[in-house]
Amino acid sequence: MKQHPNLQLFLTFFLIGATTFGGGYAMLPIIHREIVERHRWLAEDEFINVLAVAHSSPGAVAVNSAVFIGCKLRGFPGAMAALLGSILPSFLVILAIAVFLNRFAEHPAAMAAFAGIRPAIAALIIAAMLKLGKPTLKKPVKLVYLLGFLLLSAVFNVHPIVIILLGAGSGLLLAYLGNNGEKKGEQT
Amino acid sequence: MIILELYLSFLKIGAFSIGGGYVMLPLIQQEIIENRAWLTLPEFLNILAIAEMTPGPVAINSATFIGYQAGGFWGAAFATAGVVTPSLVLMVAAASFLSHFYENRWVQAALDGLRPAVLALIASAAIFVAESAVVDILSAIFSLTVIALLLLTRIHPVLTLLLAAAAGVIFYL
Fold first, then answer.
1. Where are the domains of chain A?
2. pTM
3. For A174-187, how does the pLDDT look when each residue is reduced to its tens digit (9 = 90+)?
4. Which of B110-139 are b and which e, b meaning 16 or more Cβ less than 10 Å from the residue's Cβ?
5. ipTM score here?
6. Chain A residues lying within 8 Å of B45, measured CB to CB
7. Which of A164, A165, A170, A174 to mutate to test the interface with B (most CBs of B within 10 A)?
């Protein structure tokens, strides 16, 4: 069966979006299988580059990689096809649940189930932080920054956007200071 | 115009959620729960639970759900469009002409500095969720059990949520 390339992009990312739970790292193996192994749209090293870019940009990694790959392959129409494919499964499923939940959220069994799930969500976030943080938590300087930012965010209620900007600024400042240090070192 | 407000709020949330879905949580807390009051905290936690248990990125799932609660179908459509607009713009730019942008050392330095900030925001999200989710000894046990399962075994996160839901029905009903 021959499909239009944009339709193929749409369907591939629809499949990826529909079968990956929890987002983020859970979907990487599935994207890899579809994009690199099955369709051969990207070579292994290109795929790794896409992930690096998708990961260091704002937004969901799955959506970012979809747009990037779609645009690389088919320009802006390809980017739109991949984008719609990657968000449509979530959109439709959540819409269906939202309509349904409004009717059942007050049911005692649903309320009991949610009372059980809520502490598990907190656990999920803590576990994600510990896993993501392993390399950062080992460096004392970074740990100090982390605790400082946490204090600002959790205790002083500083807006998250300010925290993000402070983080980027501190990285630039450290690099600038390091840069000057290197230059002095070269002169001697 | 609630639809336009939803689009702009989620555009802001999308533009600053670097480093994965959980970074979005403190932003949603400030923008949606505290500033706009489109949602209460318990409602938000239920949405988060559903976002985790359904396919797709948590960012998209939460935007769709919150958009629907606040503005019906079009609210859902515009909130979702808002949260993906930064992805679309930046990734099209990156794929078309900025492919070396991320190799620039200053960009790398900024990203390096972002890492502890992102972790702090995730930790802050954990505290904020735990404060209202861990309310008694039972829920503290649930929480610690799930952390142990996630760190020590290769269990799928969705499975831990289903177990927690079952435990909730058994112990709280």
1. 1-104, 139-188
2. 0.81
3. 888 887 766 555 44
4. bbbbbbbbbbbbbbbbbbbbbeebbeeebb
5. 0.82
6. 114, 118, 121
7. A164
